[in-house]
Design brief:
By secondary structure, the protein is an all-alpha fold. It is built from 27 helices and 2 strands. The chain starts with 5 loop residues before the first helix and ends with a helix.
């Protein structure tokens, strides 16, 4: 075009922004200015967004000045864009100054300012502004729920969610993700069921999140139902849903289905490989886990990371593959330039300890390049218990008592070792130490069971289940 007009430039700038090419959008504006084509109010929202995407703070500030010079400083959409621009640049005071200077505010402007506070983590100011908002929109509700979720404030997010008059897919997704990220997987599944009852159809992101929650709870039946539902609806098995299914089946012990999903996927990411290798390792298929690791390396499409090596070394430990584990541990540095972390040393100590090479495991700990933590010493103590090596076990317990003095498990493990050796005086000594330090046996462990699509949690000495009396009566009748 020989002489493109302002409408052409506006379309071009907006197009570049939508295509995530903000620098090209800014260049188009420069060309437009040099061609003496005057901007309109439709020019600035896209242009300001381009400045935000490109982190061009100075450019954005000059555009802000240009809006006043051109008489567009009072336009609502322009001002809302400026609020968003300054908040993305972490200049919350400038955002508030623009907001306070607005003669008229629409719902988009209020939502933009609330989002600005949420973006910088100031949920108190966001909440005050939200309550002052004349007419709350779905977007503003979602912004607040998402902000509380990001801050880990599950109670505030749930309170807003329950108050929200009309929930859309974003609302449900935000709340379910909030529960999942806070490890409240049962609540995530219950919220998903409420969403289904409300006739809201989930998308791929939602399905992946719920399937992940099923994995953590061991809710295999519900996970299978979701998988079947996706198949019936003709949903494409993309890498995100596929990786979630692989992980869910692996964590629930259904390795056959996990492998089936894995080999059906056309595209596999690192999480897919890691989930499958870890699942095989945990369920005692050490050699199969090693075979998958070597297959991954042969294909040369994805490089293993630190998590991959933890899973492979764990597989070697569970299957007693000492030589293979040593070779893989050495290859981390030599072939993949990954320095072993405390978690990798923990796997090696566990491997050597299970194989009865207690002294060798102790030497590895003493030669570690990083400070050993409780997991490393705990792995050594586990090997000592297995092979009744009380001397090295005592060393491990002393280290563990210094690292975690209130953890009763290590004390109890040591007393069991002394009791097996009939060293009753030492048993009494450890128990006296526990009493002196105020260490008591706790009951933090809990179990889940899935029945008819509902996951129930049971804790030792707990009575939260509605049928507790009936359950206890069965135990009384069948001692």
């Amino acid at each position: 075009m020989e002489e493109p007009n302002v409408y052409v430039y506006n379309a071009l700038i907006r197009g570049f922004v939508r295509c995530s090419s903000p620098v090209s959008a800014l260049r188009s504006y420069v060309t437009m200015s040099r061609s003496h084509v005057e901007p309109t109010s439709y020019t600035f929202p896209s242009l300001i967004k381009a400045c935000a995407l490109a982190s061009a703070i100075g450019f954005g500030e000059s555009v802000h000045g240009r809006t006043y010079k051109g008489g567009f400083g009072s336009h609502v959409f322009v001002q809302a864009s400026l609020i968003d621009f300054y908040s993305r640049s972490r200049k919350i005071k400038e955002s508030k100054r623009v907001f306070d200077g607005m003669r008229e505010r629409d719902a988009f402007s209020w939502a933009a300012m609330i989002s600005a506070y949420v973006r910088v983590g100031d949920m108190d100011c966001a909440a005050i502004l939200f309550e002052e908002m004349p007419e709350k929109t779905t977007v503003s509700w979602n912004v607040m729920i998402g902000g509380h979720a990001k801050a880990g404030d599950v109670e505030s997010a749930a309170s807003l969610f329950d108050r929200m008059p009309g929930k859309d897919l974003v609302s449900w997704t935000s709340m379910i993700s909030c529960y999942s990220q806070s490890k409240k997987h049962r609540e995530a599944i219950e919220t998903f069921k409420r969403m289904k009852a409300a006739k809201v159809s989930p998308d791929g992101v939602m399905m992946a999140t719920v399937i992940s929650a099923c994995a953590h709870l061991g809710a295999l039946k519900l996970g299978r139902e979701l998988h079947l539902e996706m198949n019936r609806n003709g949903c494409d098995l993309d890498v995100y849903i596929g990786s979630a299914l692989i992980d869910m089946y692996a964590k629930c012990g259904d390795m056959e289905r996990s492998l089936l999903v894995f080999f059906k996927l056309h595209e596999k990411n690192l999480f897919c490989w890691n989930s499958l290798i870890e699942g095989l390792a945990v369920h005692g298929h050490g050699k199969a886990a090693l075979a998958m690791f070597h297959k991954m390396k042969r294909e040369k499409k994805i490089e293993p990371n630190r998590v991959t090596f933890v899973s492979v070394l764990s597989a070697c430990a569970h299957s007693g593959l000492v030589n293979e584990g040593r070779g893989i541990f050495e290859s981390m540095t030599s072939d993949h330039s990954i320095s072993p972390g405390v978690e990798h040393y923990g796997c090696m100590v566990d491997l050597l300890g299970r194989a009865g090479r207690i002294e060798e495991a102790l030497q590895m700990i003493q030669a570690m390049e990083v400070e050993p933590n409780a997991a490393v010493w705990g792995a050594l103590l586990g090997g000592c218990k297995l092979h009744r090596n009380i001397d090295v076990g005592g060393i491990a317990v002393k280290e563990l008592m210094a690292l975690e003095p209130e953890n009763c498990g290590y004390y109890l493990l040591l007393t069991n070792m002394y009791a097996e050796a009939k060293w009753w005086s030492k048993v009494a000594g450890v128990r006296a130490t526990m009493r002196g330090r105020g260490v008591e046996k706790d009951n933090k462990g809990s179990s889940w069971i899935e029945m008819e699509g509902v996951v129930y949690e049971f804790a030792a000495c707990g009575a939260s289940h509605p049928q507790t009396e009936a359950i206890f009566s069965v135990l009384v009748e069948n001692p």
